[in-house]
Amino acid sequence: xxxxxxxxxxxxxxxxxxxxxxxxxxxxxxxxxxxxxxxxxxxxxxxxxxxxxxxxxxxxxxxxxxxxxxxxxxxxxxxxxxxxxxxxxxxxxxxxxxxxxxxxxxxxxxxxxxxxxxxxxxxxxxxxxxxxxxxxxxxxxxxxxxxxxxxxxxxxxxxxxxxxxxxxxxxxxxxxxxxxxxxxxxxxxxxxxxxxxxxxxxxxxxxxxxxxxxxxxxxxxxxxxxxxxxxxxxxxxxxxxxxxxxxxxxxxxxxxxxxxxxxxxxxxxxxxxxxxxxxxxxxxxxxxxxxxxxxxxxxxxxxxxxxxxxxxxxxxxxxxxxxxxxxxxxxxxxxxxxxxxxxxxxxxxxxxxxxxxxxx
Length: 360
Ligand code: NAI
Ligand code: MG
Prior knowledge:
There is one protein chain. This protein has helices at 16-33, 50-56, 64-69, 86-100, 167-182, 201-213, 226-235, 247-261, 301-313, 317-332, 346-356, and strands spanning 4-13, 39-45, 73-78, 105-111, 129-135, 139-148, 158-164, 188-193, 220-225, 242-245, 268-272, 280-284. By secondary structure, the chain is an alpha/beta fold. The strands form two sheets. The chain has a ten-stranded mixed beta sheet, sandwiched between helices. The chain has a two-stranded antiparallel sheet with strand order 6-7. The protein is globular and about 60 Å long. The mean pLDDT is 94. The structure holds 1,4-dihydronicotinamide adenine dinucleotide and magnesium ion. Its cofactor is Mg(2+); Mn(2+). GO terms for molecular function: D-malate dehydrogenase (decarboxylating) (NAD+) activity; magnesium ion binding; NAD binding. This is D-malate dehydrogenase (decarboxylating). It is an enzyme of class 1 (oxidoreductase).
């Protein structure tokens, strides 16, 4: 038995989520096998998702959160399938875990990989190295609002979807972003706002940002409207390091960021409960990709990169670097899936990453 065993709950869920979780597990198990008994991973797989819904009328077991609590981390695939309305599947599984486990910081690195053609031909690895820090517990995804059909009748229905911004929620994600910026070569935090149009929540966001920034005089700051930030991602990538944004803004911007680096299939993410009162959850940014699911063609690197973030969370920073270097060696040697201009299968990419673990 190993010196340290990490218990991980695998929740592959739907579509390519099932395929990429298998890839990530294979890489981590290969890494553990090379650790000379220093660490091991003890996996428990949960069958939750849209197929489970078809059978049980719910996305996860009633006591699912209780079951997950016992684990060191959750390794998640992607949830959503055409048989279940997207808001039911997302709220029934992924958001349920994120919100109940208070995983309030969602960390999404955006980096170039060697050999992967970018949609921005003018940018390269030296100009683009960001982390999008997403507020992951409130904002536009607080689930506040309602619909009123009965009172107004068909054709006149009204819906309200409110965003919730609390000073505590804003402050903790901003401090997290500043602390992260201090660990990086470029010490800068860019706050994404829309306070010109949203005069309550986003103005509070801006005020808290200014107040927190004052505690970090060594970190450069800027505040940018979300629409301008979308343009800046494309036009001035070299001007960004840590980007802190609300739940919805960061959701959109991180997909844009991964598209700039070449594919949504590359992007990794960590949903952190920084206090470690609950398990944190690691998952690729992409969804279940029903258009390519089941063909063995999806890109496993977002999920494998997420596994590297999980290693960091476990205190295995050197091993996380080994996995990242193996990812770079793989793309650099031309072994790439179709979405990033290659012809390799998911399994070939996974095997190549495992093959490169030894030269870490
Ligand atoms: P998506 O991320 O599944 O797919 C968007 C595009 O990116 C598709 O063309 C897909 O083929 C491509 N793509 C995604 N992952 C890829 C990979 N690993 N390799 C290569 N190409 C990849 O987003 P979409 O189509 O909007 O949503 C599909 C389903 O996924 C929906 O049910 C949605 O609700 C769900 N979803 C779930 C998420 C999660 O569980 N965290 C996040 C986003 C969407
Ligand atoms: Mg998203």
